[in-house]
TrEMBL record:
MF GO annotations: dioxygenase activity
InterPro entries per the UniProt record, alphabetical: PCA_45_Dioxygenase_B, Xdiol_dOase_suB
Native source organism of the sequence: Ideonella lacteola
Listed Gene3D superfamilies: LigB-like (3.40.830.10)
Domain Extradiol ring-cleavage dioxygenase class III enzyme subunit B: 8-280
Name by which UniProt lists this protein: Class III extradiol dioxygenase subunit beta
Keywords: Dioxygenase, Oxidoreductase
Domain of life: Bacteria
Oxidoreductase is among the record's keywords: yes
Oxidoreductase listed as a keyword: yes
Amino acid sequence: MAKITASVYTSHVPAIGAALDLGKSHEPYWQPVFAGYDNSRQWLRENRPDVIFLVYNDHATAFSLELIPTFAIGCAAEFKPADEGWGPRPVPTVVGHPELAAHIAQSVIQDDFDLTIVNKMDVDHGLTVPLSLMCGALDPARDRWPCAIIPFAVNVVQYPVPSGRRCFMLGQAIRRAVESFDQPLNVQIWGTGGMSHQLQGARAGLINREWDNAFLERLIADPEGLSKMPHVDYVREAGSEGIELVMWLIARGAMADVAGGPAPTVRHRFYHVPASNTAVGHLILENH
Ligand code: DHB
Ligand code: FE
């Protein structure tokens, strides 16, 4: 039986990827951001999973207004880093896990969640920046990401986006799917995007430190209650792009306590403002 051993939550600011790729991570502006992940990189080396189920959002890179899946599961053997306008990031190709991905698609769709199956897809900063933060700089000519990765894309770009409640329930279905896979795999689930930020309009630059920290508290201690928060609260309090945070509820819903198990251990918590236009939030929760 496969098992979800931990969940990781992190922002995905594209400028963080650029800072790493251009060798700027030690500059005074970026140093405190990367320092917040030092423990996490060590933790991932010590707690290396077989597979990361990586919940993220595509930013009109692989998808566009022509095609908008609400939930899309990457079932391919590999996923290339996307060209977002400056050439693909110099990071390794993502190696998938087609067998587990196909099993999760089968199980979750039979569990009444409609997923789009994706057999070819490039992955943008939404997926590669969280990996870079957790793994550090890697040379694509020589290095690999530490394990297989199943990309799971959520539409948080074009309304209507899925509710927090639906994301939380989907996480529970993903846990059931993983636990019914008959190979003894160690699986982590990552929820990415957020925290407060708004990139457009009159409130561009909005950050809400107090609200973000209350979100982190509730994500740890009251995820079910948090999942009932309506979209308008995210957008009003955390900005138009703060809605990316609903993806964290998918990862949180997959943790053991939600199904009656013991509360997770908070292994690491970090919050920093600013990184580009965004408040960076990060959490690691371990199952027992
Ligand atoms: C920024 C943040 C994002 O989540 C994103 O997708 C693009 C840009 C930013 O802070 O610049
Ligand atoms: Fe984003």
